[in-house]
Amino acid sequence: MRGQIRIRSVLCKSCGLCIEACPKGSIRISKQMNPNSYFPAEFQKDQECTGCGLCAIVCPEAIIEVYREK
Amino acid sequence: MKSEEKVLLRGIEAIGEAALRAGCRCYFGYPITPQNELPEYMARRMAEIPGAVFLQSESELAGINMVFGASVTGTRVMTSSSSPGMSLMQEGISYLAACELPAVIVNIIRGGPGLGNIAPAQSDYFQATRGGGHGDYRCIVLAPAYLQEAVDLTYHAFDQADEYRIPVVIVGDGMMGQMMEPVVLPPFREQLPKKDWAIRGAGGGQSRFLRSLLLDVHVLEAHNWKLHRKYERIRRREVRFDEYETQDAELVIVAYGTAARIARGAVKRLREKGMKVGLFRPVTLWPFPGEALRNLAARVGRFFVFEFSTGQMVEDVRLALEGRRHIDFYGRPGGVVITPMELSRIVARKYHAIQQEART
Amino acid sequence: MKQVIGRPRLLKEAPFHYCPGCGHSVIHRLVAEVIEELGVRDRAIGIPPCGCAVLAYYYLDVDMVEAAHGRATAVATGMKRCLPDRIIFTYQGDGDLAAIGTAELIHCANRGEQITTIFVNNGVYGMTGGQMAPTTILGQKTTTTPRGRQAGNDGPPIKLVEFLSFLERTAYLARGSVHNAREIQRTKKYIREAFQTQMENKGFSMVEILSPCPSNWKLSPVESCRWIEQVMKQNFPLGVVKDSRGQPS
User: How does residue C226 score in pLDDT terms, banded at 50, 70 and 90?
Assistant: First the structure.
């Protein structure tokens, strides 16, 4: 099953919990600062996201949308 | 009990019955002497009224917050206590005032400070009229002296609380609470005012919240001035007082509540002896009838403030008269209550001393 | 691709003011999801605490009423007695519920008031800068226990759900956590059961939730979650502590 996520990076506070939760290593910290001076989490499109949703479940800011192949 | 008939009631119970007839459907409170008869009365009576809620709270602290919760829903609600319990309620009263929530709070004052005793006193005047809790706010404070007045003021207090969205404090003491007088009870209110501001669940519309936390200093300043303007409106419209034998008085006693009942008896005695003494009786302690007192001072030279305390209302009398008249004070704190006879002797001594002064 | 997870409808658009990794925002999300799933948004009224979550009304799209510190359960009692068909919930932290508001909590629970309390336990007073809370564990350093909490001076931590379980009319008491995805999902279930308890008039319900406070624990968000897993939950066991809803009252 293939999946992908969308992170609203402008609201990300770089807590790192999604990275810790992701079983596929599909998220990493961006090298680009967001307007709030955080380095936000960034989805790695070329990794194996299955759309499990664990990242969205742990995200304190509720800014991760999860999509799965139908 | 039908309306318009005279019934013999204990003071404290008359207040409760008046509240129920005004549409009060919630009572939360904690037992404390000398007002226990009120929660007991409410417990009995409210069981007879469909939809009425009586709950003995675990403390006055809890009770005033239950009042807050009920008031937020738009329900007419009251609580009652005595001095030490009133101290516990001050935080809640500050929150009621801040959120502009109506409530009626009865304080049957007892000797203080601390645990004090259960005898009648008037030592909570400052607490009642100067806000009492933290922040810039006021409550309407009513001081009945007679049971019929207590009934009428209580009945009207719920309207005032709703109209101005303000806590209304009714002060009495154990003597008034226990005495029995015939009273005419008002009819049960059928129509209560609508309260669009009440929080009852979003009900398909926008969600709202009620709060007193205003972190932006300019917002909180504006809120305080808004409250202030409301208090100014109340000052202009809600002052109540009573005068007895003041038309040609050379000395006027200033007293409220039970002290005023005693003072009235003293004035009667003194008038019988030919002394020109009168009584000015504030009925609203806040707003204080300062202007009426000043008007009286245009023709009266001497004032004699009589309180069951070491002197609290006397400060408002001095403020109102701006030092332009001579003010004497006689007070008995701690629950000591004197008779009209004793007071008349004390006032007579002062009256004669004034006459003597005038001659020399 | 089909969207399977999105921002709950009952979370307003306002960005959370909470610190990175704070458990409050996760818990707000769970409460928002449960209220939406149960279809009770229009008759829900929440009472936020004095504490970091004092501004919960900026985030949750239900009617809310601010109460004085610790008094939420008394305010909830007054509201519920006047509006028995509304879903009234309090959302309180360890100062609000386990310190200043404990008397009100016990009596509200003892009376079996049909309300739900969400108790956020992060073992410190967050808003005021990290002082000891009644739930701070022995040895835990806080700004008022610089050498660690000592039982002799401060007493041991209070376990509120266990405490309340002795009261007859507490119907559903659970302790969850938000330190990993599995516990978050479990906690959401506890919250739903608690609200359902109220909807069915079965009695008082409360969900205590262990929550990370990275700022005051002086740990990173990931380390904070690890600390809950390795240390905190040994002191505060997770699970349903009491469910007496099936029994006749």
Answer: very high
CATH number reported for the structural domain that contains residue A35 in this entry: 3.30.70.20
Chain C residues within an 8 Å CB radius of A22:
none
In this structure, what are the phi and psi dihedrals at residue B20, rounded to the nearest 5 degrees? -65, -40
How far is residue C142's CA from residue A1's CA, in Å, rounded to a whole number?
47
Which is nearest to B158 in space by CA: B48, B18, B54, B38?
A: B18
For A6-43, the DSSP string reads EE-GGG-----HHHHH-TT--EEE-SSPPTTS---EEE
* Structural domains in chain B plus CATH codes: 6-237 (3.40.50.970), 242-359 (3.40.50.920)
Task: Say how far apart CA B314 and CA B123 lie, in whole Å.
Answer: 12
In this prediction, residue C248 has a pLDDT band, given cuts at 50, 70 and 90, of confident
Write out chain A residues lying below 8 Å of C24, CB-based: 60
Amino acid letter, C74:
A
Q: What is the pLDDT of residues A13-69, one digit of tens each?
A: 999 999 999 999 999 999 999 999 999 999 998 878 999 999 999 999 999 999 999
Q: Provide the pLDDT confidence category of residue C249 given band limits of 50, 70 and 90.
A: low
Q: Looking at chain A, which residue has its C-alpha nearest residue C9?
A: A62
- The distance between the two most distant Cα atoms of chain B, rounded to a whole number of Å, is 81
Residues of the domain holding A49: 3-68
Q: What's the whole-number mean pLDDT along residues B183-209? A: 96
For residue C14, the one-letter residue type is A
SS3 for C135-152, per residue? CCCECCCECCECCCECHH
Please tell me if residue B59 touches chain C, with a CB cutoff of 8 Å: yes
List CB contacts (< 8 A) between A57 and chain C: 5, 181, 184-185
